[in-house]
Design brief:
about 400 residues, alpha/beta, 5-stranded parallel sheet, two-stranded antiparallel sheet, 15 helices, 11 strands, about 10% strand
Length: about 400
């Protein structure tokens, strides 16, 4: 029998042995991938009489009554809090730097995040680790087709001893809520999360119950099992500030996972040695909300979102025709909030255009809806988003 000529490529070398108590360095923000230039089709502007915010150079004015920017002391305090959370995360999580960054951005911006990946990539571990580091109340909800809205929000139970009803709050009333495989729950159950995610409250028996602060929903969905699932409606997808695609770990990271299992570092009963308080998180969110955003960057955000709604004059009929619906104003708001958080994570008290570019896939991949033709021709939303960014001049 003849032997194959191609030799198996060698695996990368194993990382240094894990030492209990050691932590990885704070996360670094990877630079934005190069964006290919969009086709030069600006001459095809529609002649409807409407103004073109991209070609006409519309500019935002400085907002009146803006909050004062963060002080140097506040910036130093924010970096200490972020360093503590990052170190505790690294003690249990191996690799997955993008996931760590996305979770921190959602936490600082006060938004929610949707994670998409195959099973077994530590999404639950990442969420529970973040909650353990913050010493927050953490609840996990396993979504199934028979899950009821009251199983999430809560219900009223008759108390025979007192002859009255009492309210029992559901697991959504926690600081960190993990909705595992959210697309396995029915549309009725999915809609039960809308009020909690947007209004930060639930209504049970006519009574309004506020969810605790800070409040972060981390939802996951499995893209490879579609039987027995319910696609998330656009209204709920739009409620998520960010959407992250979690990738497989590298062979080196996977070897490190095995080493940490042997050392006991990943035992479920081990908790973070350094923690921050809920008050620290609220302070972090307040500092992030006061990061300065120049009017030119605000204009850049609005122009990008505008092009997703009117793509053909800017990126051509081929790519523009693949867009069914563009981003809503929530897309602009998400860019503003997440860019502030990313600037703070990078140690800056001001936003730069590169922050917006780095966030383009996180913010828009679930807001730019593509046609069936795009799916049939294997066109990804990331490809169209890159074309949009290539069409809008960077300030």
């Amino acid at each position: 029998m003849s032997q194959p000529n191609d030799a198996t490529p060698p695996l990368p070398p194993a990382p240094p042995a894990y030492r209990p108590g050691s932590v990885a360095p704070a996360p670094t923000i990877p630079p934005a991938a190069p964006i290919p230039p969009a086709p030069s089709v600006r001459a095809e502007r529609p002649s409807s009489g409407e103004s073109d915010p991209v070609a006409d150079g519309a500019r935002a004015s400085a907002p009146s009554g803006a909050k004062p920017g963060p002080t140097e002391a506040e910036m130093a305090r924010a970096q200490r809090i972020l360093g503590t959370v990052s170190q505790a995360y690294s003690a249990r999580m191996v690799g997955q730097e993008r996931l760590r960054t996305s979770l921190l951005l959602a936490l600082m911006a006060g938004g929610h995040i949707l994670l998409e990946s195959v099973p077994g990539l530590a999404k639950t571990t990442a969420a529970s680790t973040l909650a353990d580091t913050v010493k927050a109340d953490f609840k996990r909800i396993q979504c199934t087709p028979d899950l009821l809205p009251s199983d999430i929000t809560g219900t009223q139970i008759y108390d025979a001893a007192n002859g009255s009803f009492r309210t029992v709050l559901g697991p959504v009333h926690a600081n960190f809520v993990l909705l595992d495989e959210i697309n396995r729950s029915s549309a009725k159950t999915q809609s039960a999360m809308l009020e909690a995610m947007q209004e930060r409250q639930t209504t049970i028996g006519g009574e309004v119950h506020k969810v605790p602060r800070p409040f972060l929903v981390i939802a996951t969905q499995n893209p490879i099992e579609q039987e027995g699932t319910y696609e998330l409606p656009e209204a709920q997808m739009d409620r998520f500030l960010l959407k992250e695609i979690v990738e497989y770990p590298s062979p080196a990271d996977e070897l490190e996972v095995l080493a940490r299992i042997d050392s006991g570092a990943l035992d479920p009963d081990r908790h973070a040695s350094t923690t921050v308080s809920l008050a620290d998180v609220e302070e972090l969110q307040d500092i992030a909300s006061r990061v300065y955003v120049d009017p030119a960057v605000r204009t850049y955000i609005v122009q990008l979102v505008y092009v997703t709604r009117n793509p053909v004059p800017y990126i051509g009929e081929t790519l523009g025709g693949y867009i069914k619906y563009g981003a809503s104003p929530r897309g602009s708001i998400a860019f503003l909030q997440a860019a502030r958080a990313l600037a703070l994570l990078s140690g800056r008290s001001y936003v730069i255009p590169e922050d917006v570019r780095n966030l383009r896939h996180l913010v828009l991949r679930h807001r730019v809806l593509l046609t069936f033709e795009a799916e049939a021709e294997d066109v990804r939303s990331e490809d169209v988003i890159d074309a949009v960014f290539g069409a809008v001049p960077t300030p």
